[in-house]
């Protein structure tokens, strides 16, 4: 088994919620969770229409 430091860098897509990234190292395995940002949902607005006389 090898010991020492290991470095890996990569770019994250824009849809990753960078505040919620989690990493766990267990039994020689590194697990990284990169949750997606919640998508903006369309908002429905009512607009009053006046009749022309």
TrEMBL record:
Lineage of producing organism: Bacteria, Pseudomonadati, Campylobacterota, Desulfurellia, Desulfurellales
InterPro entries assigned to the protein according to its UniProt record, in alphabetical order: A-crystallin/Hsp20_dom (IPR002068), HSP20-like_chaperone (IPR008978), Small_HSP (IPR031107)
Family designation: Belongs to the small heat shock protein (HSP20) family.
Name by which UniProt lists this protein: Hsp20 family protein
Gene3D superfamilies on file: 2.60.40.790
Residue ranges constituting the SHSP domain according to the UniProt record: 1-50
């Amino acid at each position: 088994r090898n010991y020492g430091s290991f470095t890996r860098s990569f770019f994250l897509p824009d849809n990753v919620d960078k505040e919620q990234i989690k990493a766990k190292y267990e039994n020689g395995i590194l697990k990284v969770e990169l949750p997606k940002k919640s998508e903006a949902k369309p908002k429905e607005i009512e607009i009053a229409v006046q009749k022309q006389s």
